[in-house]
């Protein structure tokens, strides 16, 4: 009887990354429809080269099967800093650090896990660089981002693509001009996407409309110092970083931080792609409302506007009752 149990256990699929059945620590073990690929949800979420996919092709846990297979193949050459076994595709987020882990091994080695599903943030800092996680910008130093580079890793000892500099500012080798960290275009698109704002000291550039409708950017108040198109540049950098893991529903390129306002909807866009896909933009400067509804949910706009109006009136009455003045919305969305 015990032999039968052992045989059944041996037949259970194992994660292609950590090669274990540690579902409790690593999340649900997901298996592809073909039964040929199995991976823990956390092992994929934190893998350095995986990004979510909105295509209709076969996927596993929101990731393209083909992308997962490529990452598994890359992991075969990466040894874990903790257990010294292959499959370690999760690298410390400090660029100069060469530590790389399986998800479970990162936990065991007391690395710091930063997870924020609402912002698409899934980062790991090894135990030597836990302090670096307190500064959202420190680890962004160095170089120009190039998310379109799909070259294989230069080094086998690190879980991140060495050819991908992780600064949010992109530039074209042909013209050397500054590029928006969201849509990756330059000043030639200013007419349709708003002025391209730049900050050379922080190596960041972004079009006004791309920032205005991004879910995580914060607009400064009129009394604050307006340095970057009236946006808090730190929140712009953080949003660009989040966009590096978000593929556009229309063009499938990274940097798509503008999501449909319906929470259950997974569609996300670049500003210009939302226009092309006939999404509906709501822009009300007086009330600080900047929203997008995909073409499937554009009919929800009127109901949301009514709810927003009722909430605003309630807030204003509450502020007056407490002897204050009505608050103003400073968020970009």
Report on this structure.
- By secondary structure, the chain is α+β, with helices and mostly antiparallel strands.
- It has ten helices and 16 strands.
- The strands form eight sheets. The protein has a two-stranded antiparallel ribbon with strand order 1-2. A two-stranded antiparallel sheet has the order 3-4.
- Strand 15 and strand 16 form a beta hairpin.
- The longest helix is centred in the last third of the chain and has 21 residues.
- The protein starts with a helix and ends in a 12-residue tail after the last helix.
- The relative contact order is 0.09.
Summarize the entry for a quick read.
The protein is an alpha+beta fold. It is built from ten helices and 16 strands.
- Estimate what percentage of residues fall within beta strands: 15-25%
Can you tell me the overall shape? globular
Rg, Å, rounded: 22 Å
Helix fraction? 10-25%
Biggest beta sheet attributes: 2 strands, antiparallel
Number of alpha- plus pi-helical segments:
10
> Element order, helices and strands?
HHEEHEEHEEHEEEEHEEHHEEHEEH
Report how far apart the termini are: 61 Å
Q: What is the mean predicted local confidence, pLDDT?
A: 76
Strand order of the largest sheet: 1-2
Strand segment tally: 16
Main structural class: alpha+beta
The unreliable regions are 1-9, 136-175, 325-333
Please describe the topology of this protein.
Blueprint lengths: L1 H10 L11 H4 L2 E3 L6 E3 H5 L13 E2 L2 E2 H11 L14 E2 L8 E2 L1 H6 L3 E5 L4 E5 L44 E2 L6 E2 L10 H4 L2 E4 L4 E4 H5 L20 H11 L14 E2 L8 E2 L1 H6 L3 E5 L4 E5 L7 H21 L12
Antiparallel strand pairs: 1-2, 3-4, 5-6, 7-8, 9-10, 11-12, 13-14, 15-16
């Amino acid at each position: 009887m015990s032999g039968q149990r052992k045989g059944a256990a041996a037949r259970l699929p194992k994660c292609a990354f950590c090669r274990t059945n540690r579902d409790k620590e690593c999340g649900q073990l997901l298996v592809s429809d073909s039964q040929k690929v199995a991976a823990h949800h956390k092992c994929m979420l934190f893998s350095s080269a995986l990004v979510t996919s909105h295509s209709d092709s076969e996927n596993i846990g929101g990731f393209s099967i083909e992308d997962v297979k490529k990452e598994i193949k890359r992991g075969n050459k990466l040894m874990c800093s903790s257990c010294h076994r292959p499959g370690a595709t999760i690298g410390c987020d400090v660029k100069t650090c060469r530590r790389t882990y399986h998800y479970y091994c990162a936990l065991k080695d007391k690395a710091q896990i930063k997870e924020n599903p609402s912002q698409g943030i899934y980062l790991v800092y090894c135990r030597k660089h836990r302090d670096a996680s307190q500064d959202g910008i420190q680890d962004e130093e160095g170089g120009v981002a190039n998310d379109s580079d799909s070259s294989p890793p230069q080094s086998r000892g690190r879980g991140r693509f060495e050819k991908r500099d992780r600064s949010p500012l992109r530039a074209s080798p042909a013209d050397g001009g500054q590029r928006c960290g969201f849509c990756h275009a330059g000043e030639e698109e200013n007419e349709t996407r708003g002025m391209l704002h730049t900050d050379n000291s922080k190596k960041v550039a972004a079009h006004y409309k791309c920032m205005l409708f991004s879910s995580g950017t914060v607009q400064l108040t009129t009394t604050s110092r307006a340095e970057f198109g009236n946006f808090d540049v730190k929140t712009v950098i953080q949003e660009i970083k989040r966009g590096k893991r978000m593929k556009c529903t229309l063009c499938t390129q990274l940097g798509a931080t503008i999501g449909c306002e319906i929470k259950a909807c997974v569609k996300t866009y670049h500003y210009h792609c939302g226009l092309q896909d006939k999404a509906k933009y709501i822009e009300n400067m007086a009330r600080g409302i900047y929203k997008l509804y995909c073409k499937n949910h554009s009919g929800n706009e009127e109901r949301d506007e009514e709810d927003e109006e009722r909430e605003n009136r309630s807030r204003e009455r509450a502020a007056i009752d407490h002897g204050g003045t009505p608050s103003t919305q400073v968020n970009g969305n």
